[in-house]
Prior knowledge:
Blueprint: H1 4-13, E1 33-36, E2 39-43, H2 73-76, H3 79-91, E3 97-99, E4 109-112, E5 118-127, E6 137-141, H4 142-154, E7 159-171, E8 174-184, H5 185-189, E9 196-200, E10 204-212, H6 213-220, H7 224-229, E11 233-234
Parallel strand pairs: 5-7, 8-11
Antiparallel strand pairs: 1-2, 3-4, 4-5, 6-10, 7-8, 9-10
Amino acid sequence: MSDKTESSSVESSGQGASSIDAETPNPRQSGETEVDGNREEISSEFAPTELIERPEVALEDVSGDIPTCTGRGKDTAAVRGYNTERLANAVFDTWFKFLTYRDDPWYDTFAEGSHEITFRIESKSCVYRYPSGPYGRFRIWKHHHDEFVSMARSWPLETEFLYFFCVYTIEDGGEREVGKLVVPAERVDEVLDSWTARDHPTMGESHARDISWHQLLKRLGVPKTMFEEQPIIDLTDGVPTGE
């Protein structure tokens, strides 16, 4: 997001969470399994939809200037946050065109797809565990999130509003992906609570939610083992049908 430098300080210190996340899962029903080409066997409710072109691309594959990305994070994000935007660029539909869309600071990337739809994508990343031991956390700013969800609920056109989450470890000085997840903004909104006031160098006092990736998975009903073993977890419904 546009203020990933703030979340970077949370990742490195492990401090700043509003409270210890309650371990209260909200599981979904198990689905059937499918095998699609080079995609591994995965429960159909979590399997990549036609929006995901290259699920096998991982965070460690993003290096140097490949792939390029012109989202907001190119100018505002810490390196790891920007790499997550670039990863989103790499795994989505190859017809997508990712663009900077500066008028709306509550998401990172505007994308034009090949299915006569557009996408607004907010990318988030966090470390697997902090050096002090707790699971890493995603920081979500309330005023940005509220605007993002409000747009998702009221937008009249064929547009998807998505969060793209990535969890990584640090090995030999570089990032190695643990897992990645794409989720509709409205679905994320259903599992957030306990907003806490934070000081921010440019936004002043703002409310945010620090939620561990482990707790986010539980609340979304995604098994931790599946998240770590599968190339991507896709909780979207794929290309909107307009029906």
